[in-house]
Amino acid sequence: MKILMQGDSITDGGRDRNDPHSIGWGYGLYAKRYIEARHPEMEFEFLNFGISGNQSSDLVGRWTTDCIQWQPDIVSVMIGVNDTWHRAHNRQWLSDEDFEANYRNLLERVKNETNAKIIMMEQFLLPSDDKEYFREDINPKIMITRKLAREYADVYVPLDGYFAAACVEKDSWFWSVDGVHPNNNGCALIARHYADAVDKILENM
């Protein structure tokens, strides 16, 4: 069972870019451990192609080499926060139409050029005083992500919602130091939901 993880720095997790099997220290590492522990009878191959700083357009540009050609059984995608963050200094936001077109391109190609099941993971923002204004752009893009999930996802992981609930129970700093990058606690939270998503796919295969 080949599982390919795609995204930005949250997925990258400091992986060795020269080794596609290098999982890094982020949520992917925790997810790998959870999945293997839950399914000791199965053999998994984990691939991590997250790249720090990437936006949706970057994934479009490298989708053939970093996704399609690997013909995975499961593809997970978490992208979008940098589409907001990289434009936040002047609020010259990427249009919602362009964001949707980029994301739809990725998903269409997976559907048409592979047999992979798709896990879509929602971009998220934890409470952070210096980034609260990101919400004016990230919220409508989360809604686009959810709309696309209804069309394409085999499993959707609503991480913005999960972190919102988690931040009611514990302060946001427990999960992330900057509202965007999860610490070990945040990575473990993402990974538990990731493993649950894989469970749902395996149950239906």
How does the SSE layout of this entry go?
Blueprint: E1 2-7, H1 9-12, H2 27-38, E2 45-48, H3 56-66, E3 74-78, H4 81-85, H5 96-113, E4 117-121, H6 135-152, E5 155-157, H7 159-169, H8 184-203
Parallel strand pairs: 1-2, 1-3, 3-4, 4-5
Helix pairs in contact: 2-8, 3-5, 5-6
Short description:
The chain is an alpha/beta fold and 205 residues long. It has 8 helices and 5 strands; from the N terminus they run βααβαβααβαβαα.
Which short descriptors sum up this protein?
five-stranded parallel beta sheet; 8 helices; 205 residues; alpha/beta; Rossmann fold; single chain
What can you see in these coordinates?
The protein is an alpha/beta fold and 205 residues long. The protein has one domain (2-203): Rossmann fold (3-Layer(aba) Sandwich). It has helices at residues 9-12, 27-38, 56-66, 81-85, 96-113, 135-152, 159-169, 184-203; strands at residues 2-7, 45-48, 74-78, 117-121, 155-157. Strands 2-1-3-4-5 form a five-stranded parallel β-sheet, with helices on both faces. α3 (56-66) runs parallel beside α5 (96-113) and α5 runs parallel beside α6 (135-152). The longest helix is centred in the last third of the chain and has 20 residues, at 184-203. The chain is globular.
The level of helicity is: 40-55%
Number of strands: 5
Structural class: alpha/beta
In DSSP terms (H or I, runs of 4 or more residues), the helix count works out at 8
Main sheet: strands, sense, barrel: 5 strands, parallel
Mean pLDDT, to the nearest integer, reads 97
Beta-strand level of the residues, as a percent range? 5-15%
Low-confidence stretches: none
Number of individual domains: 1
Q: Termini, distance in Å?
A: 11 Å
Topology pattern, helix = H, strand = E:
EHHEHEHHEHEHH
CATH topology, anyone?
Answer: Rossmann fold
CATH class: Alpha Beta
* Rg result: 16 Å
* Order of strands across the main sheet: 2-1-3-4-5
Principal-axes shape call: globular
The fourth-level CATH homologous superfamily is SGNH hydrolase
CATH architecture: 3-Layer(aba) Sandwich
